[in-house]
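Possible regression after last week's pipeline update?

I re-ran a chain I had predicted before the update to compare outputs. Posting the input and the new output here so someone can diff against the archived version. Not blocking, just want to make sure nothing changed silently.
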Amino acid sequence: MNKIFSDLGLVEALIEGLRKENIITPTPIQEKAIPAALENKDIVAQSETGSGKTLAYLLPIFQKIDLSKKEMQAIILTPTHELAIQIQRQVEILSKNSDIPVTSTPIIGNVNIARQIDKLKEKPHIIVGSAGRILELIKKKKVTAHTIKTIVIDEADRLLDMHNIDAVKAIIKSTMKDRQLMIVSATISKEAENIAKNLMKDPEFIKVEESHTVATNISHMYFLSEQREKFDMLRKLVRMINPKKAIVFINKSEEIAMITEKLKFNGLKAEGIHGTSMKENRKKAMDDFRSGKIQLLVASDVAARGLDIKGVTHIFNLDMPEDPKSYLHRVGRTGRAGESGIAISVITEAEKALIQRYEKNFGITIPAKDMYMGKIVDLKQPSKQPSSIKKTKISSNKKF
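New output (post-update):
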């Protein structure tokens, strides 16, 4: 029998706050992690992208915050600016909807440190951000490490790597020994697992197997194209469908800027995100996409990792991922919160085998489509006449 949030030990105010977001039933990772977190156990939690890991640790943190004390009580470490801002937004939404006045502030690198110090003077309950900058502020005694009761390491496989581990360990060492440590990630390597064991006291390991299923509210289709004509096909599809908010996925990060510029040159509102972008540029691109100022966000699987953007209506695959899991994660960016979504792939004849693999792995149908007289139609078979072409209804913001 499916559990409800009250079964997990959450207070009614938080449950009511979730209802206002139309979140009624806990996900498997929330079901397992929330009770253990409320008991103040150290946790290593692994669950796929989009499975609700953020709320799995935020809800217990909210419940355990001592509102009578104006002091820093939790640190959430993230590997990217975007994830820090997403978590910050979720804290703000949960605080507002539940009427629990928990405060937080994002602390990230390559941003004016004086402004961050001013924010920390307000003693926010939760600090969200990058290990390097937070450690710097602990050393400057601007973050009161001795009052921290919980540390979360989000996307742990990245934060426990050779580039970040020293800063993460230093932050943990600066806090009291009785603090709680929660490690969460979509994937946790054996090496990261061993590091976690050394950092934690009798940790509880929680692993939720990937479902390998695609939401039924997502429609799939593909369009055949020569490799050199793929971009032209994408441009025409975007012009015809006029999606409200769409993500264009490509395989190579180094091509993101080129594709973005070509889309802009053709009069389309697009921005790209990739690892080499300045943080300010990435933030502006994400803010503009969320607010609807731009229609298209161009990204690779790596660049888009951890992003949770509401209202994405379409996913375009300009390149096809070899790993079926990547297709699953891509299309999972649309059709969220009960909305419908559409996943469109532009493929070559040689990539048909990948389509067949996705269909087999996920038990879905990905039909071949074509464009005809301003409509998306079933791909015409050689033996059929144009009059037999069946028209397909597809959501669009444009009339013809």
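Follow-up from reviewer: compared with the archived run. Residues 137 and 143 are 6 Å apart (CA to CA). Marking as no regression found.
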